[in-house]
Design a protein that fits this description.
Helices cover about 75% and strands about 0% of the residues. By secondary structure, the chain is mainly alpha-helical. The protein is elongated.
């Protein structure tokens, strides 16, 4: 993938709700590196490919349906596990959220 296409793709997905803070920061770093005329390593391209695959329009649509999917498929199991882990110090933040 050419540098121009990489920057264009990063700009396209930068506001997707599926983008997490780490991926956004990585993409900003890549954009800066390309703008300085530096070449990307194979490892950087692998990570970018993963980020591009995780942030597609299809993934955004899945995220839109997540509240309903959670309620139907995962809520009961999550509450069961949260009750169990409430007796430990593990996963405290997740337990409190559930």
């Amino acid at each position: 993938m050419k540098e121009h296409a990489i920057i264009q793709k990063i700009n396209e997905i930068s506001d997707y709700p599926t983008m997490n803070d780490w991926s956004r920061g990585f993409c900003e770093s890549i954009t800066d590196q390309i703008s300085r005329g530096r070449k990307l390593s194979v490892k950087q391209m692998d990570v970018l490919t993963r980020i591009f695959n995780e942030n597609t329009e299809e993934e955004v649509k899945k995220l839109e349906h997540w509240p309903d999917d959670y309620e139907l498929k995962y809520r009961d199991t999550a509450q069961l596990l949260a009750n169990y882990y409430q007796t430990t110090t593990y996963y405290r933040d997740v337990v409190n959220d559930i």
